[in-house]
Amino acid sequence: MPVNAALAAAPAAPLTAPPATPPATPLLRPVSGWGGYPRAASEMLAADAPETLPALLRGRRGVIARGGGRAYGDAAVGLRTTVLTGALDRIRGFDPATGRLRAEAGVTLADIVRTFLPGGFFPLVVPGTQFVTLGGMIASDVHGKNHHREGGFGAHVEALTLLTPDGVPRFCSREQNPDLFAMTLGGMGLTGTILDATFRLRPVESGWIVQRTRIATDLAAMLEALEQDGDATYSVAWIDGLARGSALGRGLVYRGEHASGDLCRAAGRDLFPSPPPGRLTVPPGWPAWTLNRASVTAFNALYFRRGAAAGSPGLVPWHSYFFPLDGLRAWNRLYGSRGFVQHQCVVPRHGAGAVLAEILDRVARLGTASPLAVLKRLGVCGRGLSFPMDGYTLALDLPANAATFALLDALDRRVVAAGGRLYLAKDARQTRDTFEAGYPELPAFRDLRRQLGADGMLASRLSARLGL
Amino acid sequence: MAGTLLLVGATSDIGHAVAARYAEAGWRILLAARDPERAQRNADDLAARYRAEVALLRLDILATGDFARWLDGLPALPDTVVCAVGELGDQARAEGDLAHAEGVMRTNFLGPSLLLGLVAERFAARGSGAIVGISSVAGDRGRGSNYVYGAGKAGFTAFLSGLRNRLAKSGVRVVTVKPGFVRTRMTRGLRLPPLLTAEPSEVGRAVYAAAEGRGGDVVYVRKVWRLVMAVIGAIPEPVFKRLSL
Ligand SMILES: Cc1cc2nc3c(=O)[nH]c(=O)nc-3n(C[C@H](O)[C@H](O)[C@H](O)COP(=O)(O)OP(=O)(O)OC[C@H]3O[C@@H](n4cnc5c(N)ncnc54)[C@H](O)[C@@H]3O)c2cc1C
Ligand SMILES: NC(=O)c1ccc[n+]([C@@H]2O[C@H](COP(=O)([O-])OP(=O)(O)OC[C@H]3O[C@@H](n4cnc5c(N)ncnc54)[C@H](OP(=O)(O)O)[C@@H]3O)[C@@H](O)[C@H]2O)c1
Predict the structure, then answer these.
(1) Could you give the count of Cα atoms lying within 13 Å of B3 in the half-sphere of its Cβ?
(2) A208-277+284-432: what fold?
(3) Which one of A74, A111, A132 would you pick to mutate in the ligand 1 pocket, going by the greatest count of ligand atoms within 8 A of its CB?
(4) Which domain of life is it from (chain B) (predicted)?
(5) What ipTM does the predicted assembly reach?
């Protein structure tokens, strides 16, 4: 069914409240993503309830939704207006028999886990931080350490309500408005503002993960270990981004399984542990020079040896396993006021070794610190602008500066030449060319935007930069 | 002991946080709003998070003539009643638009006072119950920037104070809450000083502790507000009137 007809057939909820005329000169504030680069001025508007959002947005152009602001680059920075969804934080229903949860888009992952883990439920897919929102997880179709088995977050979304640019909230699912639904998963907020969504939680017996750590001494061993983990519930690797030569690609592979209740009881563990209060916060204005090559080398060497000592399986609480960085609040300030970028690519499985080796080698030669280099296996390919494809994904943090950008431009070309692409939720700087080469469903996505009347209406700094 | 809470002003963010704290403790929740449809998301939230038993009711705080019949129609007399109804209004507009000023005064003072006064009668007859009014520090001293709202809250604060005094020996507890700044729909878009600004959940906890715990008669949610208001209260009028506040 063509999208227009589908839209016409959808029940249109009545609009509330008279149009609010946007101010001629809105109050602008500088905003950025998690990486602090780039920074741009935008009007900040706070939603207060799903039903008043249409009136709030009426007459505004260049609008984009913003959840937890954990996208690294400019995806959640409105071209003119950024809509904060924090107040859309109500849970609308939960059925313990099926694990089906319906919640508003501004509900955070932290809230979901805090509320439902004690009852034995956990989301099927989680990213590496809990400070994201439901809307953000859907709009980026986030992947976890289990994409090879469960697909992206979007695969577990059954339905959502989308506020399209015409101001009408539309119910979307695989049956109703199926194209709009599919393109909204991973659609980076560019098809509309998600108001709420229905998705599944999985039953778990405990909040503990049985983790097994293995050492991979070089890249070949690393890829081999990740392939062997195809049957693991969770699998992720940390790479020593500074190792070169024969040690290139060395690192640790973490395999994880949900721990049974019996195992935890036998170990004398509290079945559903709470994270520590985590009061450690990096203060504003932290000097970036503390993160230099020497400190990162020392950090990585320490990490590598400690992991090498580990070996046998251990019980790890959910928060340290899934969200290790959340223990240090505002760690993005470590990079100082100029900010940093995260480069995350995916390359198809066949031939991945050569591309990854080249990336790792060139980054190591650059000599700037990348304390975080994470490698994961991804499974099935999503639709629209969804990032994952069958292959390997590598993520590296680098300081935002000219040398980084020059290197990354070259690496981007290498990635797309190999049939890969870059993750929009992390992107702050790729060119239109690499974007267009990486996302074959882009023409269909553009068509849908045209039909929705989204051009110019829904726009982020990212969409403007990439010519979406 | 878990009982039944009646929350009046169920679409309020502060009110919702109060109801959440009670639901967490296992209370049954009655939610009253002038437009119950808009309170549905709050009712759902309480049911989904805490498996609370929740019912939605319709009540307009300006329809004072209906109060007695409305209270009689409740499934049971609640154990605790919290009134979160309020309207900030627009001070500048209220200066010339009498209808607007009257609405603000009635919404903050008349409606809540008459309703809670009537509840107090029934609680006194039963010999138990807690009554909580969400008033405001704005009622402690009138300021040029919001004295129409402040006057309404001042009236409400005085009413609650008198009620508390009268019922002190009757087993009925009366609590006045002055939340200070709270991050809600009412204050969205205003620049608020972080140290003086509470999250709705802090108000929820403070209300529960005051009404169901060891008690508190006048609650400033963040303690520094007591100091701030003491300072503001101590400024001599000849000086105060010249300040831009
Ligand atoms: C430490 C860290 C670890 C991470 N680990 C992973 C990982 O393992 N896997 C992974 O996939 N990602 C990961 N990410 C990225 C993160 O999961 C995504 O960027 C996610 O989209 C952030 O959600 P958010 O609520 O913060 O969204 P924001 O950053 O606010 O927005 C991200 C995008 O979602 C859109 N959006 C947000 N809310 C809505 C809405 N209601 N309706 C429509 N569009 C909306 C925005 O417009 C924007 O395009 C990580 C990020 C950090 C900081
Ligand atoms: N936020 C602050 O900083 C702050 C500070 C001090 C005191 N307070 C007080 O705290 C209380 C709750 O405020 P809030 O911050 O949560 O803001 P809010 O969301 O605007 O709450 C106001 C509530 O009053 C209700 N109301 C208004 N007129 C009504 C009527 N005629 N009949 C029934 N209900 C009516 C509103 O219902 P509708 O949704 O139908 O409009 C809403 O539920 C208020 O009394 C406010 O004055 C707030």
Answers:
(1) 16
(2) Vanillyl-alcohol Oxidase; Chain A, domain 3 (3.40.462)
(3) A132
(4) Bacteria
(5) 0.93
